Amino acid sequence: MLSKTGMSTVLLVPAVAVITAGIFYLYGAILQLLSKATVRNKVVLITDSLSALGKECAKLFHRGGARLILCGKNWEKLESLSEQLMNGSDRTLTFPPKLMELDFSDVETMPDVVSDVLDAYGCLDVLIFNSSVKVKAPVQSLSLELDKTVMDANYFGPITLAKGVLPSMISRRAGHMVLVNSIQGKLAVPFRTSYAASKHAIQAFFDCLRAEVQEYGISISTVSHTFIKATTSPHPTPKTNSIWSAFTRQKHHGISPEEMASELLKTLSSKKSEVIMAHSVSKAAIYARSLLPNFFFSVMAAGVRSGTPTKYEH
């Protein structure tokens, strides 16, 4: 026969489960309402819509009633994504996405892309920069051509698009640009010279732009993360024992596409200037880089001596 204490414990477990489920349900409902209020009827462009994060953003914003412009390198995959979105939603409450081929590494095509973007709906309310090319290798093994490719894709392409749509936003005195950036735009770790340089450059560009366009009612937000986790990866991150690998390990410290998409939605609502989505070690490293630079550099150098780099990550 169960004692009163035992009976209380038995009843407590399902009660906690029900309360937890209720909290998650309430959170989902609030998030859905937030998405409708934030992006309803807004023209939202998502670069690299075919990535894991791009797809999650497309789903979330489409359900919220946004007028989506989905960009990517593969037209057939864009069409497939658009069809999935339309089949999974109420067509009386959502808008069919507009599709555009976009490759930031081909900077010469950007003027035509800008023209097509503004012609799609006549304006642009939200621009989400979600794309990058990653390279990981010793600096002496990287060619100048590869350095330029990384800078085109991660810096020159995005800023060309930003500059192209900026006059329209200024004339309307409205708009929101959101940069999804790596935490390596805040600190640099070894064997990522080209990648970190491009991420520092794009971070600095948007930090400057934020101050310049504030008087026009335009919001600029940067959301920095460690890694966006994917369900499966064709290039799994190898295990290393180096000190600085703790800053960039994907398996244990990455952000899921769902988490990041939800954070982007909240950022659009709050218009927060900067968000850091990283574990405590990475956040501590950012402060150490500013407050204790010599200590930080020593840790990085020690990490190089104890770690072996992977050649490339594209």
From TrEMBL:
Keyword DNA repair: no
PROSITE patterns in the record: ADH_SHORT
BP-aspect Gene Ontology terms: intracellular calcium ion homeostasis
Keywords: Membrane, NAD, NADP, Oxidoreductase, Signal, Transmembrane, Transmembrane helix
InterPro entries, alphabetized: NAD(P)-bd_dom_sf, Sc_DH/Rdtase_CS, SDR_fam, SDR_family_member_7C
GO function terms (MF aspect): oxidoreductase activity, acting on the CH-OH group of donors, NAD or NADP as acceptor
UniProt KW Membrane keyword: yes
Transmembrane segments: 12-34
A Pfam family it matches: adh_short
PANTHER family associated with the record: DEHYDROGENASE_REDUCTASE SDR FAMILY MEMBER 7C-B, PTHR44668
Family statement: Belongs to the short-chain dehydrogenases/reductases (SDR) family.
Name the UniProt record assigns to this protein: Dehydrogenase/reductase (SDR family) member 7C
Taxon lineage: Eukaryota, Metazoa, Chordata, Craniata, Vertebrata
